[in-house]
Amino acid sequence: MTISKLARDIKESPTLKMNEAAGKLRDRGEPVIHLGAGEPKSKVPLDAILNGAAKLTTADIRYTPTEGISSLIKAVVRYTEESYGKVISTKNVIISNGAKHSIYNLMVTLVDPQDEVIILAPYWVSYPEIVKMVYGKPVIVGPEDGRFIPSIEDIEEAMSSYTKAVIVNSPNNPSGAVYPEEFIAQIVELCEKKNIYLIMDDIYHKLVFNGKQAVSCYKHAKDQSDSSRLIAVNGVSKMYAMTGFRIGWTVANTKIIEAMINVQAQNMSCPSVVLQEAAAGALNGVQSGVEALRLMLQNNRDVMVNELRAFTGVKIIPPDGTFYCLPDFSAYRKDSVALSKFLLEKALVVTVPGKEFGLEGHLRLSYCGTVKEIMEGVARIKWALDPDSPNEIYIGDRRYRRDWK
Ligand SMILES: Cc1ncc(COP(=O)(O)O)c(C=O)c1O
After folding, report:
1. Which of 155, 326, 333, 399 is the most buried (most CB within 10 A)?
2. Residue where a domain stops, chosen among 269, 284, 299
């Protein structure tokens, strides 16, 4: 029996790989600090719990329409108008099992074999793999030197007659960068000029710091009609800390949504009704939790940036959103996979290698945990890498000596 070539070509998720390695160490009782996490630890909004539980207690749990329940779809319509000033109809929305599933179904819907999808580095690890899963070709455009954003000229140069779509993720995982308004205006114009789909992955768009705003592509779109090639993906995972609920959505023109409904009907029928009710509860309920999370992350970001600035060899561009940063550690080691492994072994700190996000020499560090974890995690990294830091450190109740150069 053989495994398909497609499945063999799909990379193991680097974050899951690190989680597994950390889990093994934890099982042995080692005091691991996780700076690799991709989910906030705050509580799920009460309105989500109450709505989901109310549905569950009816004991009447069935399939829903493939595109999702109408209360959640209406909530997304309202959310889109409130967040972007973009008026859409219920026919422009489909609910899926998380934004990742939305992006997968979208790719099945848009991409023919050999079509190219432009991905801006640094990028979320799943984009290239999802494109490959539909037999498309990911085309990676790297950032300008010392920045986290590619130039419009480089993006245009990467476009060919096979280019089907560009994915923009701002605020960005892994860099935390919020793309400037000028860039957004230019990419919208370019995609409209060339009739290319522009997919905005807006999963972090409410998690932005110090009064900044992630400018939406809708703001600059000339085509506001129902044939627009602008597509927005979002979900409840990050802003409501509801990663385990697996609810995401796509907003697109009706033709795309109709085709996506057919795709979704054949690959999962519909998302769970209980979880859709919970997501509707979150979107329709009290919103103060989103702001509380944003403020907590902003404070954590400040702590992380301050700690990293105490490192002579580390270059950091402070993130303006998300709960990640992507400092440059290449002064210590150019190979980020080896560096990440080294830090887990020696300092018991989980990081994610920048190479996995298309930016070698960097490490992605999350600040969605506690301030204590951030401070201790960075202190351990500093001890392991910086020869000027004290030679000894306590990790848990054990004393460690640095005996490497
Ligand atoms: C940029 C980006 N898009 C999409 C997702 C997927 O989110 P969901 O949990 O809704 O599938 C993630 C999750 O880490 C992400 O970082």
Report:
1. 326
2. 284
